[in-house]
Every structure is written in structure tokens, then in C-alpha cells.
Amino acid sequence: VHLEHELRGAWDRGELSLAYQPVFRVSDGVMVGAEALLRWMHPTQGLIAPSVFIDVAEQCGLIETLGPQVLRAACFDAVAWHRSRGGDPLFVSVNVSPRQLRHGDLPEVVADCLRDSGLTAQCLHLELTETAVIGDETHASALLSKLRETGVKVWLDDFGTGFSGLSHLRRVPVDGVKIDRSFIADILRDPDDLALTTAIIALAHSQGITVVAEGVEKEGQYELLRERDCDLAQGYWLGHPVPMAEFQALLCPA
Ligand code: G
Ligand code: G
Ligand code: MN
Ligand code: NA
Predict the structure, then answer these.
(1) DSSP category for residue 87
(2) Beta 91-96 vs 124-129: how paired, if at all?
(3) Would strands 242-243 and 16-25 be described as parallel, antiparallel, or unpaired?
(4) Number of domains in the chain
(5) Contact assessment for residue 95 and residue 36, using Cβ atoms and an 8 Å cutoff
(6) From atom 13 of ligand 2, which residue's Cα is the shortest distance away?
(7) Locate the EAL domain: which residues (predicted)?
(8) DSSP readout, 182-201?
């Protein structure tokens, strides 16, 4: 209750900000985009992780105002990257919570953010967890189709951790899957995890779906993923999440 109360005005007080973690194309190591990750600098408790407060925001409904604020900020930031860097525009990938999918007028919110920021639809990626689409696949599919018609890309996040993972790919229209970092963590040691990762990549490719590996912490994992034809990767070995200013500096070294 305490946290909920404090979280309520946190965005307006400037305590919340976005960190960006770079995403790379595995085949040639080129940076192609970044994932937006919310950070809360609490005035007395210091940095609070999203794993702690996203659930609170989700349960009390605050996510319905916070979600659109995050989306809007991320779109404007992505436009700023392109202005300062030129070249091929980077995509920005934004996490969308189950509640935003169920209750928010997400297609309208997305359209507003794109129009106001001037960001190209193809440069906006939305990350949904498997749990957000499980149970209500008819509604979710219709919504995702509507979103994808606008050109926005939709990713299934934390892929592999849900129970019905692979079968979902046939019923829910998505552009890509992000293999959960718990699988990537052991691909160098555990043949089962490597087999599963390889199977996910093959299955996804057979359906024309792109694959991102999360949590790449070692060069060996990256090499293995390249051998297995994984499309994109992110993780501490490639780049940590950093504040907007730092990310911007990374794009245009002085
Ligand atoms: O940033 P890590 O740094 O700790 O993020 C932890 C979890 O919080 C991840 O599962 C991520 O998907 C989620 N998360 C981070 N930022 C956001 C956000 O802006 N919105 C939602 N819904 N989830 C987020
Ligand atoms: O569920 P989601 O994918 O949105 O979670 C992103 C989370 O993963 C963030 O908390 C981010 O800080 C974290 N993360 C990013 N790269 C790595 C990594 O290489 N290793 C670990 N352990 N966590 C990572
Ligand atoms: Mn994510
Ligand atoms: Na994930």
C-alpha cells in the first residue's frame, strides 16, 4: 500500500526513467535496436527494480496510466536517436503488461504515440509475455492483428517459460519471440537447453518468425547462437541497460 501510494506520483515527480539495453543482429554484430526498461529512483530507498514495482502497478491499475507514459517517452527517445545518428533507424522495444492488453485501448494509444512523436511504426516493437495472451487467445489475437496492421511489431517475451509455449506460435500472430534468459544461461553446459533453444529457432523460422536471445553473458553463448542461426541477441556481454543520455552518447561518441 505504501509503495503503491508513492508510485502514484512518481512519474510526474521525475523519479521514473527509462534505461535502454542494446539489441544486436547476431550474423554481423550490428546494433539494430534497444529495449526500454523502466527504473525507479526512490527518494529514500534508492533504485527500485521493475520486478518489484511493475507487479504493484499492475495490481492497482496504475499501469494503465504508466504504460502509455512509458510508450510515449520511448517513441520520442527513439526519434531522438535517429536525429542524432542518422543511418538505419534503430527500433525501440517496449514491455507491455497483461493489464494494458486487456483493458487499455492499446491500438489507439500506440497510434497517438506514433503520430505525436513521428516515429515510424516499424521502429516500434511491443513485448508481451506469454501469460498476457494465454487464456484469452481470441481477444489477444484480434488485438495483435490490429496492432500489426499498423506496422508495429509484436514480440512474445520470456518465451519458453509458459507451459504452452510452442503451440502458441500457431494461434497467436506475432513477429518474433524472445527466448528467456533462463534457457540461454546454460546452453554451453546443458545439452537439453541447447536442444530446446535450437528447436525454438527452427520452429520460429519455419513460421517466418524472428528470434531474439536474451541474457547473453558470454562470448561462447553468442558464438553458439550464431551457429544456430539465431537472429538477434541482447545481454550483459553485449551491453547493459543504460540511461538515455548514456545510450545516446554510445550512438554518437564525441
Ligand atoms: O529491467 P529488469 O531490469 O530488472 O526488468 C525486470 C522486468 O520488468 C522485466 O521482466 C521487464 O519485462 C519488466 N519491465 C521493465 N520495464 C517495464 C515497463 O516499462 N513495463 C512493463 N510492463 N514491464 C517492464
Ligand atoms: O523479462 P524481460 O526480458 O523484459 O527482462 C529484462 C531483464 O533482464 C532486465 O531486468 C534486464 O536488466 C535483465 N537482463 C538483461 N541482460 C541480462 C543478462 O545478460 N543477464 C541477466 N541476468 N539479466 C539480464
Ligand atoms: Mn522484455
Ligand atoms: Na524476457
Answers:
(1) S
(2) parallel
(3) antiparallel
(4) 1
(5) yes
(6) 215
(7) 1-254
(8) HHHTTTTT-HHHHHHHHHHH
Which residues are in the CB-under-5-Å shell of ion ligand 3? 95, 127, 157
Range of the domain at 13: 2-249
Q: For residue 210, is it within any domain?
A: yes
Q: Which cell numbers in the block locate residue 14?
A: 521525475
CATH number at residue 23: 3.20.20.450
Tell me, yes or no, whether 254 lies in a domain.
no
ipTM for this model? 0.96
Q: Is it the case that residue 67 has pLDDT exceeding 90?
A: yes
Whether residue 81 lies inside any domain: the answer is yes
Q: How far is the CA of 143 from the centre of ligand 1 (A)?
A: 21
pTM score: 0.96
Ligand 2 atom nearest residue 37's Cα: 9
Distance 94 CA to ligand 3 centre (A): 7
Asked if residue 200 belongs to a domain, the reply is yes
Task: Determine the Cα–Cα distance for residues 93 and 125; give it in Å rounded to an integer.
Answer: 4
